[in-house]
């Protein structure tokens, strides 16, 4: 095939030009996003039921929904949390479930349940979790005058939201912190009593005046006309002039007995930017949109907003495109430095300027063609696919170096230019294809990991496969053609190796002879290093993600006091006032208004985001915050953590490491605090780490109203009437709504602000003699303790103890002994947590790696036509892993997702070197006369030594270019560099040992395996 193509250079060049043209078109159409569009198998159902305690939300809302949804197909788990005013259900499905169908099925079941749910509650919201739900940027709106807050809210909801939604690539625009207003009617009790007008008449008149009667038809001769009864209530003046009638029949306008005015709605949540109250708009992108194009459009729109609306201050925060730009910049850095170092190494080793130029052409051509295959495979440009592409770049350089070196060697042996190109490519074609297949054998099985990990590895594995396949095509087809074109007019002998390489070759021969002289001892010493890999794997720290030098902190607060949102906001402002460390802050206080919000939501909760100038100030700020809150608000629950970016939100797991779920035999019973203390004491006897108190064990103070039924009977008052008056006595009640041009304005009867007992005294009920009595005579109020949250799963209500960290030994103790304690106490016990998920993932990973090694073995056995020689390659892998882990340990790193990817890449390069070396030895060994044993051994040793000299240059060049291309990341800063640094250390450490292994371990192992054949 190579011979056929190399004799048709014009056709091949034109074909590549055509492919490059379509590749450029594909690049323009490829979506650019932060993360791949992964269908997360999770759905959240959120039920808002204002002014309702957790017990009623659990019994009336969440329990029926859980019972109905338990029959869903592929449902993995169901967890619910009932709080005051809000209930949340999280559904987790088995990975691979069609979430569009599951979403439809959930909606159908909720629709069927709608009749059984409380009538005053809105339909529960069903929210699908998706990676594209993460906002790409947040826009802060701060009114320059507090009096303009409602106007700015209307501006954000009716104008800015629509203008942003019109930007190409925007999917959802979400708002938090906006305020609305309503028409408040505040009756004057004294005037109503003086004019003998019952308060109930106000509500009746409003509802009657605002009633929609539909359409009437009137026939007039041959014609029929439709008459619509118009709504009489259109503005505030019409409401003020509504007629009331007293007992004497006199008409009194409403404004004479009540104050009618607009008032702001009751605020259940606030948003602060710094210390100023404002609104925040979060912007989400479409799956197919390019983030790099969308974000500049948003900035451009905001600049226009600043000109159009001078009464509002606009600020952009938490721009997630910075992370993507860091990934793209890393790729650019790898390309630039990879090309420079490849050029320098080729020049230093070969002393020929034409070869680096050939490399400079083939490298970008391979990369551009890869994007065409990205388009065909349906991939987007994101951090995961870019990392796969960057990983493949090192191997792309390797293939080009090996082919160029082999063609040059053939020319030195006296072949003609065309024969050198053909023979040089054909000779390394099989081992290079085999090396690519072995690399893919390591990568591709990772796709079959369950859950999100497998989905993320899919993009990476496919991108690596694409870049490797493209590099082979370019190396086998374009590179020899370029070599022919650049060297066709070159006359004379090929320039010898540079003096630098000749010096390296001399050093190599000295080391090789020394090791070969004591080959048994050398081989045993190298074999003894293999168990060190197992020891290092157990010794090194293990983490999910690398430590990233962040400057952002998220403070999550729950005051554990029945305070309103305004009080919570005042406490946050006081904290920010006293804080003497400069930081950009955002605060979401109380209930969030985001449509896509999936947190449980509570008025007494607050999330505060801090962006500090430096990591050191971040550490100081976190210590100050913790000390301040523990001193001023010791009862508050405090969580201080790194502010999650989009990358963390995907990889970080929800929930605690280990959880013990306690359940009573009666599903609706809960353990009290004394029972929890007793259980905690029992647990503390087993393990030293004290458990955290789960949500179900947290209690709060509440008011309990008791109605005196005997008094009611004596006065002839029904209990329903008392409950009706009580429900309207405190905050007032909704009477009707004015609808105009899509706008809905509530009309409420509002009570004057007063303490609770005064409000109960002012409210009255009518007895059997039509006399009015104060409501306080029949209702007694007392403080009680009640559960703040009620947690439940598919088997019913539970209360949990939780651990963030726990040793394997302690976990086994708890799992063995706690069930006996539960049985003695008449309780049921279940265990849960990310520990079990990690355990399952580890088992799957071990199984997948065993499959990878088996695939690697079978591919090599087919390549070498031997069942023994593949073991040489497999035994080199632990040595490379040992080198990677040692460098990670010395650099203060850990074994995490990124360093594991680096180890996989390093193993791919190591395998390539070992395969090429064994393949060359095999080719030389076939020429040996095997009839005489002593002569065979001598010739075998010479073949092994000659192979070392032949393959020294490509092995060193591939390793050195890869290491030097990655070195700039070590000295870079920023989140992109922090993510890539463990990967770089793993590759550098592995290749340092791996190069030594390929040069010395492989020939020694080959000798001890092959010398027995003679």
From TrEMBL:
| InterPro entries in alphabetical order | AcrB_DN_DC_subdom (IPR027463), Acrflvin-R (IPR001036)
Q: Which UniProt keywords apply?
A: Membrane, Transmembrane, Transmembrane helix
Q: Which organism is it from?
A: Roseivirga thermotolerans
The organism sits in which domain of life? Bacteria
- A UniProt-annotated Pfam family: ACR_tran
**Membrane-spanning parts:** 334-350, 357-377, 383-407, 428-449, 461-483, 516-537, 845-864, 871-891, 897-916, 955-977, 983-1009
**What name appears for this protein in its UniProt entry?**
Cation transporter
